[in-house]
Design brief:
By secondary structure, the protein is an alpha/beta fold. The protein has helices at about 15-25, 40-50, 70-85, 105-115, 140-145, 155-165, 190-200, 205-210, 220-230, 260, 275-285, 300-310, 320-325, 340-355, 380-385, 390-400, 415-420, 440-445, 455-480, 495-505, 510-515; strands at about 5-10, 30-35, 55-60, 95-100, 100-105, 120, 125, 180, 185-190, 235, 240, 270, 335-340, 360, 405-410, 425-435, 485-490. The strands form five sheets. It has a five-stranded mixed β-sheet, sandwiched between helices. The protein has a five-stranded parallel β-sheet with strand order 14-15-13-16-17, sandwiched between helices.
């Protein structure tokens, strides 16, 4: 059976650290603790007093003053790892944790999981080729030497980097290493950890290089493991569930996240709020349970993106200068169909094509697979289409040799609709108001990744009102925007009631609009 040496990096909450260590060793595992030297000595002494005699607990030989983004975090990790390797010869795995981490599975489940997977779990993506770094400096992390902390010495940090650039002091990456990047929360087998330590002992040049890189805890172990272990034995994912906001801040979990956390395909979670007393108690009790089964739905990241995205209403991005200076053309008419049920809008677009001959295109700003002619590459991705939206639409008018074009848009894209309505062309809008049953919303949640087939009924019960409110909120935003030439048809309305707004939107005779409105399969789910 797997036996784990947990490498615990911490800097606060001695009572919580003691409870965490006692909980982890109760499952037959071990703990090696590094407690930041910046923290009060009395806190460290308290931890040593309670845990010092426990044979399943050891401590890093040196307490280092750690700073975010600095080599000191890697140095502290190596110190705790060396202590664990020496103190716990029966440990089969080494798992990096922080004081803010908590188990979201039982010890029994954790051991069984590691027994079934003979691999190292560590994110290790090519530093230069991947897009793992979303914001901030990238290659500058490596090619310049960093002696100052960007968070606490910002002026010196950037002045030093600018001076090195001006003097041409770029340095090469060690020739035999392919630098990797990923999360610092990993789980490695004993053979891998021993290989890393041996590598450090024989390659001081590599340690010197990483010692002056920026945020080396995201590159050091990742690079060495990829260098030392066959790729087939590496799973490029952490076993700790963690998420970050758009601004690079870790998401914090609270008392009401218990069911959500248990449903994720991870063994631990970071980071748990210090105020989440109930959550910590329940997770602590969970870890010691025997025979507990878990239903994995793994919808956490999708739910977070959805729920936080609702809070960013009104955020606008400045258009490129070539978009502000171009127009679809005063003589042209753009018809925008707005509908949350994409299949309904697509059916309407097809019927419009059949009955009126108006050129129509589906959700080209939402679906990469939307059929489009070759427009020189501008049509190749949703991102490119959105960035060059007016140029794209103008090209479609030209390619199809038409002055009227119908386009389907999701109601979430109010900013896009505002932008298109500001064009010199004549723009008309048609919102399709649909009915949404609970079954449909459940299916919608699964299609967009907010839920899985085995998501619990309790989670769905909490999620459905939010989705329903979000759909209603999007519709209210449209109507509150006071768009000109705004029309609306409804699933619950009669054919006669829908004919008039449809005719006004399309600019066609009533009999043609009635033929389209009478399409019997239009609203069928």
């Amino acid at each position: 059976m797997a036996r784990i040496a947990y490498i615990l990096l911490c800097h606060k909450d001695p009572a919580g650290i003691i409870a965490q260590a006692e909980r982890l060793v109760s499952g037959g595992d071990y703990v090696s603790i590094h407690f930041d030297a910046r923290a009060p000595r009395a806190d460290y002494d308290r931890i040593r007093e309670v845990l010092g005699a426990n044979p399943s607990v050891t401590f890093a030989r040196r307490r280092l003053k750690c700073g975010w983004g600095e080599w000191s975090l890697v140095d502290a990790s190596l110190s705790a790892i060396r202590a664990a390797v020496e103190a716990f010869p029966h440990a089969s795995h080494f798992y990096m944790l922080s004081g803010d981490c908590m188990p979201i599975k039982s010890a029994e489940y954790v051991h069984d999981y590691l027994d079934r997977h003979d691999a190292d779990f560590i994110e290790a993506f090519d530093f230069f080729a991947s897009d793992w770094i979303k914001t901030g400096i990238k290659e500058e992390r490596l090619i310049y030497r960093h002696w100052f902390n960007e968070r606490t010495q910002k002026g010196l940090f950037y002045a030093s980097m600018a001076l090195q650039a001006r003097l041409g002091l770029k340095r090469p990456v060690p020739a035999d290493l392919s630098v990797q990047i990923g999360s610092q929360w990993w789980c490695l087998r004993r053979s891998t950890v021993e290989s890393v330590i041996a590598f450090c002992d024989r390659r001081p040049d590599v340690l010197r290089f990483f010692r002056t890189t920026w945020i080396p805890d995201e590159t050091f172990f990742q690079t060495l493991v990829r260098h030392l272990v066959p790729q087939i034995e590496i799973r490029t994912r952490p076993l700790t569930f963690l998420m970050f906001t758009d601004y690079g801040m870790p998401v914090t979990f609270y008392n009401d996240h218990y069911d959500l956390l248990l449903a994720q395909d991870y063994l631990f979670a970071r980071k748990i709020s210090a105020d989440a007393i109930e959550l910590k108690q329940k997770l602590g009790e969970l870890y010691t349970e025997v025979g507990r089964s878990f239903t994995i739905s793994d919808e956490g990241r999708g739910l977070f993106r959805f729920l936080t995205g609702r809070g960013r209403v009104g955020r606008r991005f400045a258009p490129r200068f070539w978009e502000t200076e171009t127009s679809l053309g005063r003589e042209r008419t753009l018809l925008i169909v707005i509908c949350k049920k994409w299949h309904v809008a697509k059916r309407l677009a097809e019927r419009v094509r059949q009955v009126t001959g108006i050129a129509a295109v589906d959700y080209l700003f939402d679906e990469d697979a939307t059929p489009l002619p070759d427009l020189g590459g501008i049509q190749s991705s949703v991102e490119k289409r959105t960035r060059h939206r007016r140029a794209l639409l103008r090209m479609l008018f030209d390619v199809w040799q038409t002055d009227r074009l119908l386009l389907c848009v999701d109601p979430a894209h109010v900013d896009l609709i505002h932008d298109l309505c500001s064009d010199r062309a004549s723009v008309r809008l048609l919102e399709i108001g649909c009915d949404f049953s609970d079954d449909y919303l459940v299916g919608h949640a699964r299609r967009v990744g907010l839920a899985r087939e085995n998501t619990s009924a309790e989670t769905l019960a909490r999620l459905l009102p939010t989705i329903r409110f979000d759909i209603r909120f999007e519709s209210d935003r449209l109507r509150d925007s006071d768009f000109e030439n705004f029309h609306r048809i409804r699933q619950s309305a009669t054919v006669a009631q829908n004919t008039e707004p449809l005719a006004a939107f399309l600019g066609v005779a009533a009999d043609a609009a009635e033929e389209i409105a009478a399409t019997h399969y239009l609203f069928v789910d």
